[in-house]
Write a structure and sequence with these properties.
Chain A: Keywords: ATP-binding, Cell membrane, Membrane, Nucleotide-binding, Sulfate transport, Translocase, Transport. The complex is a heterodimer. By secondary structure, chain A is an alpha+beta fold. Chain A has 2 domains: about 5-225, 3-Layer(aba) Sandwich (Rossmann fold); about 240-360, OB fold (Dihydrolipoamide Acetyltransferase, E2P). Helices cover about 25% and strands about 35% of the residues of chain A. Chain A contains 10 helices and 22 strands. A 7-stranded antiparallel beta sheet of chain A has the order 16-13-12-11-14-21-22. The longest helix of chain A is centred in the middle third of the chain and has 18 residues, at about 170-185. Chain A starts with a strand and ends with a strand. The mean pLDDT of chain A is about 90. Chain B is an all-alpha fold. The chains are: A alpha+beta, B mainly alpha.
Chain lengths: ~375, ~290
């Protein structure tokens, strides 16, 4: 079922949690609401569910206007961050809850309920735990039961609040893949909240990046990564190094360091955002750049080695991070405390007076 | 290194056997003379003129009436404060509203104020010359010096017990369970009966036991509003005093022994509930430990 959000806003006291925002979610889509804490993503999710009322705007499920519909009657599935399983009920009773509270006329018979519950437990591959209590389950198992419980009434909209937040990395990855499979198989529309960019990019059909109560960008994961449209999105998607430069003689200058402007770049002061893998590393400055850095840490991470670096004789607010393939790292044999020079291959330039970046390439 | 070695050789206060046994001995001695001996003395005094006299004094008409009245007062007070306490706890833990903090403070007034003062206040308001009482008098309704007045002050004195037990628990449990239930389609009543009530069950029972114990034993406030009419408005604690003032010491202690037994029963129930709660927590912890291993 499609979800239409139109001019929704919300404030708590003097705090504007959501500025009027609109969002159109297609049927069967999986949407990730991504943002730091306080960005309003959970508030938006709770407004879609009906757990909070919006100050302005309206919400539509399909053709149905649900703006003033009570939570109970919206019939959405909701998975809470801490699962919110009923601790005094067995796993089976938890899953059956949504069916058992149905009005008598709609309620299935006890045998039907039992069969449906077993079917749901099979679907989440936990049928052997039917008579356990929530306190006897691991985090990943609780999450699956919470999902089975939310799906028991066959909702067409599934909302998930930080669904994998409390799980360890391995279980998280596994559950993510499994949830995506379930979503594709059953065809409901899902909206989930996360602060983990990797999770949002991997799981969503489209990612909604939020900050300070408004939407920064809505895009497919690939497009979002390739063309972030604001400094915030760039910062939040992570792993970008920022070079603040003033134009002098065809170069961006920052104290002793400089980068040559590529062909076609505007002669403007501004900030250059360069992703950690878009660098060439050497022991001497190159004709394109003179960016001396000191190695302060070396961390092998998966297929790459991450170097943490601080500027020498120029200024940057953050530590720089550069990812090198093991091969390139081994060839150079860098050590902590050494000085090295980096040269950007590609970057995004935000002029001081611009909101949107320009993509630059130094590759010939 | 040397300083840590030094400190590990030092005895903490209370580690010395002398201090330890002195403290334990003193505590036991004080417990005995302040709590245990008086309790035993009640029963000893009650039976000082023999068992026959004990039972005869209990089935004396005025005493029987006092027992009956006390039970009626408790039977009315407990349900009223059960409902009120749940409502109060629900309101302050589930809703944000102006004056919420003030309400939580006001709730403790019955604990803070002397029951005699509470009784006087009710007399002032609802007595025949009182603000509300004079109007009620014109309608031919008499609250003070009758059982309704006794119930009213008892409700006042015991009203914080249930809410005080529930509020910390409900705050700690949060509202996610309830939100989950409503999203799954539960009506207000289904939510309360199937989710909220099981979560607060033991705290609720505990609150009820305390309310009951206090309702049965209340003296000060009841004394002011009852008018002390024997066989009519005397509750058991008032009957004890009346008998004692009549130099019927053994009868007074016989009545008092009933109150003492109710108190002991309350403690027993309290211990049982605490044991139940602790056991269920332990079992949960044990299961959780097994799962994580």
């Amino acid at each position: 079922m499609s979800i239409l959000i139109e001019n929704i806003s919300k404030h708590f006291g003097h705090f504007q949690a959501l500025s009027p925002l609109s969002l159109d979610i297609h049927e069967g889509e999986m949407i990730g609401l991504l943002g730091p804490s306080g960005s309003g993503k959970t508030t938006l999710l709770r407004i879609i569910a009906g757990l909070e009322g919006a100050d302005t705007g309206r919400i539509q499920f399909g053709d149905r206007d649900v703006t003033n519909l009570h939570v109970r009657d919206r019939r959405v599935g909701f998975v809470f961050q801490n699962y919110a399983l009923f601790r005094h009920m067995t796993v089976a009773d938890n899953v059956a809850f949504g069916l058992e509270v149905l009005p008598r006329k709609e309620r299935p018979t006890p045998t039907e309920i039992k069969n449906r519950v077993m079917h749901l437990l099979e679907m989440v591959q936990l049928e052997h735990l039917a008579s356990r209590f929530p306190s006897q389950l691991s985090g990943g198992q609780k999450q699956r039961i919470a999902l089975a419980r939310a799906l028991a009434t066959q909702p067409e909209v599934l909302l998930l609040d930080e669904p994998f937040g409390a799980l360890d990395a391995k279980v998280r990855k596994e559950l993510r893949r499994w949830l995506r499979g379930l979503h594709d198989e059953l065809g409901f529309t899902s909206v989930f909240v996360t602060h983990d960019q990797e999770e949002a990019l991997e799981l969503s059909d489209r990612v909604v990046v939020m900050s300070n109560g408004h939407i920064e960008q809505i895009d497919q994961p690939g497009a979002l990564y390739a063309s972030p449209n604001s400094r915030f999105v760039f910062d939040f998607l992570g792993n970008a190094n920022v070079f603040d430069g003033k134009v002098e003689n065809g170069k961006w200058q920052n104290l002793q360091a400089n980068i040559v402007l590529p062909n076609g770049a505007e002669q403007k002061d501004g900030q250059l955002y360069i992703r950690s893998h878009e660098f060439f590393v050497s022991r001497e400055p190159t004709v394109q750049a003179n960016l001396p850095l000191r190695v302060i840490a070396i961390n092998p991470i998966g297929a790459e080695v991450r170097l943490e670096l601080t500027p020498i004789d120029w200024h940057s607010n953050d530590v720089w991070e550069i990812d090198l393939p093991h091969k390139a790292f081994d060839k150079n044999g860098f050590e902590k405390g050494q000085t090295l020079y980096v040269t950007p291959k590609a970057g995004y330039f935000f002029a001081h007076d611009a909101q949107q970046p320009v993509l630059l390439n130094w590759d010939q | 290194m040397s300083s840590s070695k030094h400190s590990s050789n030092q005895l903490r206060v209370g580690d010395s056997p002398l201090v330890k046994w002195l403290l334990i001995g003193l505590t036991l001695f004080l417990t005995a003379i302040l709590l245990v001996v008086p309790l035993i003395a009640i029963f000893q005094q009650a039976f000082v003129e023999g068992a026959a006299h004990y039972f005869n004094s209990l089935i004396e008409a005025d005493t029987l009436h006092a027992i009956g009245l006390t039970l009626v007062v408790a039977a009315l007070t407990v349900p009223i404060n059960l409902v009120f306490g749940v409502m109060l706890a629900w309101a302050v833990t589930r809703f944000e509203f102006p004056g919420r903090k003030l309400l939580m403070t006001l709730m403790d007034i019955p604990f803070a104020v002397s029951p005699v003062v509470a009784g006087l206040l009710y007399l002032l308001l609802y007595g025949n010359n009182g603000w509300i009482g004079s109007w009620l008098y014109d309608q031919d309704i008499q609250l003070m010096f009758a059982w309704p007045g006794i119930v009213m002050v008892t409700v006042f004195v015991t009203c914080p017990f249930v809410a005080r037990e529930l509020i910390p628990l409900m705050q700690q449990q949060g509202r996610e369970d309830e939100e989950a239930a409503v999203i799954l389609g539960a009506s207000g009543w289904q939510l309360f009966r199937r989710v909220t009530l099981p979560n607060i069950k033991w705290a609720l029972i505990y609150g009820v036991i305390l309310t009951n114990a206090r309702a049965v034993g209340e003296f000060g406030a009841v004394s002011v509003v009852s008018g002390n009419i024997r066989g009519e408005t005397n509750t058991l604690p008032l009957q004890v005093q009346a008998q004692y003032e009549d130099y019927q010491a053994a009868a007074a202690f016989a009545s008092a022994s009933l109150l003492a037994m109710i108190a002991l029963l309350t403690l027993l129930l309290k211990a049982f509930i605490e044991w139940r709660q602790e056991r269920s927590l332990k079992i949960e912890a044990e299961k959780e430990r097994q799962v994580t291993q």
